[in-house]
Amino acid sequence: DAKTTQPPSMDCAEGRAANLPCNHSTISGNEYVYWYRQIHSQGPQYIIHGLKNNETNEMASLIITEDRKSSTLILPHATLRDTAVYYCIVRTSNTGNQFYFGTGTSLTVIP
Amino acid sequence: GAVVSQHPSWVICKSGTSVKIECRSLDFQATTMFWYRQFPKQSLMLMATSNEGSKATYEQGVEKDKFLINHASLTLSTLTVTSAHPEDSSFYICSALPPGTVRGNTIYFGEGSWLTVV
Predict the structure, then answer these.
(1) B5 touches chain A (CB under 8 A)
(2) pLDDT of residue B104
């Protein structure tokens, strides 16, 4: 039931910005885009979420296209500890508030 | 620090026995909790939505009689794997949804529980 498409893997040099894309072409007007990451053998960690405006917090920035059909998570200065699987999730608009995970992007930060 | 805690972190049980995993929200009351299962090198699969004081809602293909979910209080949900078999060995993860717009209406995940059935 996941409604997002992400590249399976990406590499990024340490200290550089990591830009992780996500396609969600069927997103509805009231559905949010959430980003989580999962480091091996741990529970997912919340990163950021947004509706239509770009968002920034201490961890990352989220850029959502004007038509909302895609978004990009930006880690401004990737470190080795950012190596993880990153999941882009469109939150369902029904009353259940479920989060369905897609396959995610495995990001490897290279020294 | 963690706002959702799971216990145990890992458990080994014999085939045919039952095992219970607890999920607690530590600093908010969660009327809704979710249970996921994750096999190695795969994504998280939503198993069920647990609502306090009512029966859980199971995803298609998840056996409700095998995976018993109880959400008796606003801070505790439990998952019991009954008559466990080796194919039930997996990483089980819970998450909790704060009420209203608390914490940006974001769900928070526990650390996960590794189950190995031998």
Answers:
(1) no
(2) 53
